[in-house]
């Protein structure tokens, strides 16, 4: 795959499967154990989402990152596209940093510590960008305004359905993967 070409569906799915496997192994690592309980709870979502943004927009998998692409996701994509509470964004740099160190220790990437240090240096930048409405994408802006309470409502409304006729969202979101 050329760096300017998007991944094929098969390449994308293979990368998701690989990151899910690595994420599962990460939970048994010293790097994971050094995270706070809150960071550990957020780790699966952070790693999976970060990888999807990195690979989907930058065409770079999280297990073969470069500093520029990591910075783009930290500064621009993650804060613009992810709708969550501020304490979630406070976990992103630490979790991704720990995961990069884990990949480096395993030998999956050569410069895990260097990349981790760079991402961790962007901690406040991620939190500040996520809190600034000027950085939000359209969907996040609508969600954060309180007009819509989940992506199902966004999809249905964009298809012309009356929001009052839509079913209520579930109380508990489904678990993604089985870490």
Automatic annotation (TrEMBL):
UniProt-annotated stretches for the region Disordered: 157-179
Name assigned to this protein: Uncharacterized protein
Organism listed in the record: Halococcus thailandensis JCM 13552
């Amino acid at each position: 795959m050329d760096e300017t070409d998007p991944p094929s569906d098969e390449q994308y799915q293979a990368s998701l499967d690989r990151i899910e496997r690595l994420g599962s192994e990460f939970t048994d690592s010293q790097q994971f154990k050094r995270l706070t309980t809150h960071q550990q709870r957020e780790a699966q979502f952070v790693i999976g989402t970060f990888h999807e943004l990195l690979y989907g927009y930058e065409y770079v998998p999280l297990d073969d990152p470069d500093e520029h692409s990591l910075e783009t996701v930290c500064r621009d994509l993650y804060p613009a596209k992810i709708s969550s509470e501020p304490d979630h964004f406070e976990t992103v740099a630490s979790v991704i940093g720990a995961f990069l160190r884990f990949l480096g220790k395993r030998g999956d990437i050569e410069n895990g510590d260097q990349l981790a240090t760079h991402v961790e240096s962007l901690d406040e930048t991620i939190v500040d960008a996520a809190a600034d409405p000027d950085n939000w994408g359209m969907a996040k802006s609508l969600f954060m305004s309180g007009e819509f309470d989940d992506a199902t409502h966004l999809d249905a409304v964009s298809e012309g359905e009356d929001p009052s006729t839509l079913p209520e969202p579930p109380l508990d979101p489904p678990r993604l993967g089985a870490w």
